[in-house]
Specification:
Strand content: 15-25%
Number of helices: 6
Helix content: 25-40%
Shape: elongated
Order of helices and strands: EHEHEEHEEEHHEH
Number of strands: 8
Largest sheet: 5 strands, mixed
Distance between the termini: 25 Å
Strand order of the largest sheet: 1-8-3-4-2
Structural class: alpha/beta
């Protein structure tokens, strides 16, 4: 067993493409909206989101599946994302407040409640979608567009440079043993 650091975006892609799957007997999960928003805020502010345990030989996620599935559901476009493991139906996740300064907040909003300067989280991972958002901001907020786009760009950069600690299992380490250790030390 050894610990490495991987790009969060690569892990999201691996989960969304089925390169990493939950280990057998993995429990399901349903996250509350507040937990989803807290996770998004952690990523976008550069806070750690916890390690994941991966058995690369079997391509199994031993721990961290809910976090990675939720992140994939947040940051991937609708046609590429897995179902988000949250209670109820998930509206759009957006960053709001980019026009006001350096602060921002992540919100879940319905399509009809989105504001022109809202930055959908699904635009942060894909350059083409981010550029389309920038064009929309130019049209809706010409006097503030430069600042809004600069702050949105910083958030995209944080996502693209985010790292996650990965505990990689070696062939001689039993995934069951690691799962027991993870569960024994789980907080909350």
């Amino acid at each position: 067993m050894h610990i490495t650091s991987r790009d969060l975006t690569n892990l999201i892609e691996d989960v969304s493409r089925g390169k990493l799957t939950p280990a057998e007997g993995h429990r399901g999960s349903s996250w509350a909206y507040r937990e989803v928003i807290d996770l998004a805020n952690s990523v976008l502010t550069g806070a750690p989101i916890g390690a994941v345990v991966i058995d690369y030989e079997r391509r199994h996620l031993i721990d961290g599946r809910e976090r990675l599935m939720t992140l994939a559901a947040m940051f991937l476009p609708a046609d590429e994302r897995p179902a988000m493991p949250v209670d109820g139906s998930a509206p759009h996740l957006v960053v709001r407040g980019l026009a006001e300064g350096d602060g921002f907040e992540v919100l879940m909003v319905r399509e009809e409640d989105r504001e022109p300067a809202d930055l959908p989280l699904s635009c942060l991972l894909r350059t083409r979608r981010f550029l389309a958002w920038e064009r929309a901001v130019d049209g809706a907020h010409p006097e503030q567009a430069t600042g809004i786009k600069r702050r949105g760009g910083r958030l995209a950069q944080r996502l693209h440079t985010a790292k996650v600690a990965v505990i990689e299992l070696d062939a001689e380490v039993s995934p069951d043993r690691v799962a027991r250790l993870v569960n024994r030390h789980r907080i909350g």
